[in-house]
Amino acid sequence: MSEQTSFEITQKQLDECVELLKLDPGVHAILRMPMREIHVSLPVRMDDGSLKVFQGYRVQYNNAKGPTKGGIRFHPDKTIDNIRAQAAWMTWKCALLDLPLGGAGGGILCNPKEMSRGELERLSRAYIDQLSDFIGPEKDIPAPDVYTDPQVMAWMMDEYFKINRANHFGVITGKPLAIGGSIGRTDAAARGAMYAIREAAQVHGLDLTKATVAVQGYGNAGYFAALLASTLYGCKVIAASDTHGGIFNENGLDAEAIRKQKSMTGSVVGLPNTEPITNEELLELKVDILIPAALENVITETNAPRIKATILAELSNGPTTPEADAILLKKGVHQIPDFLCNAGGVTVSYFEMVQNAYMYYWDKELVHSRLDKKMTSSYNAVHNTATRFNIDMRKAAYAVAVMRVVEAMKCRGWI
Ligand code: GLU
Known about the structure:
Blueprint: H1 6-21, H2 25-32, E1 36-45, E2 51-62, E3 68-75, H3 80-96, E4 102-109, H4 117-131, E5 140-144, H5 150-164, H6 188-204, E6 212-216, H7 220-233, E7 236-242, E8 245-248, H8 255-265, E9 275-277, H9 279-283, E10 289-292, E11 311-313, H10 322-331, E12 334-336, H11 338-341, H12 344-358, H13 364-389, H14 393-411
Parallel strand pairs: 3-4, 3-5, 6-7, 6-10, 10-11, 11-12
Antiparallel strand pairs: 1-2, 2-4, 7-8, 8-9
Helix pairs in contact: 1-3, 1-14, 3-14, 4-5, 6-7, 6-12, 6-13, 7-8, 12-13, 13-14
The chain binds glutamic acid.
């Protein structure tokens, strides 16, 4: 049922994995809840002179494998529950990619679309003022997520440097290139998804040069997914959407033209030579590759029976409910589960931390080839586990990730 919260869904997914792996109930209890949650109140002077207090959170889920890592989102209705889910998924994501990192998530309840640049800067700095004791390159490393970007990361980094009176570049990732960012971070999540899609296509004997693609959501991840699907592999993107609705053209859409339309008018809708479709219709199109790149819980038990895609590449976190998973499995839809599919973002974030620590920066070719290697080996680890134990791809991803976290906890003497 879609009334389940995102965090309840992560717990349910974990419960199934624990049952499969026959883990000890005590270990299960540790893995089921965040290690630490920090709630903060952030007073910000608004442009009209009033003082407004925002609520912010940071959830550090598990640090057995290393410092916790995860994005910060600015959203009016993303509650602590969503942030807990984000932190849990980051734990499994980092473990699955075999990064020396744990998982975290953060956010501020606000509507960035209604705030000025100055207000956003003061809010970003206030968040770091409250959290600076709890973050750091060896403790917890934030990054961008929904409605935060390199500029927000830059303000946050600057505030951390001022408090600590030192340039700890690795405190935050997704920074602008001019101040310690990594080449290839901006399109990393979408590019990583492309490498996973290439592997999945090989498994299914799907010729990508003839494949059709639909992209739901046209933020940073959605735009780059549409762009790279066509430029890297020659796929035909036939539909795209955002919160206002979608567009369709069976002869193919130009990713760059869609982006321009959205930045000029606020929506992809209305692009010349396209037919309007709804988000619901887009998800149910008969395409080779469906890429949800927006928010959680869009594929549910209600629409899952009508999903016709061959490959479902989950670029957003938590787009599919557990009930929908079961239906898709029966229908033979090949899922690339979210915390595998979108892991390119945190992988290049990790590369950014490594470069920050060495004070020596890689070129684009090196970033792309190392990302490809990580994504390909993680996809294969999941696919081999799924085949070997006859389980679905999400369960297999959980099994690989959870075993790695459990092994780290064992080595450290926690269990
Ligand atoms: N927010 C992104 C994610 O969910 C990136 C996290 C990071 O780079 O730390 O993977």
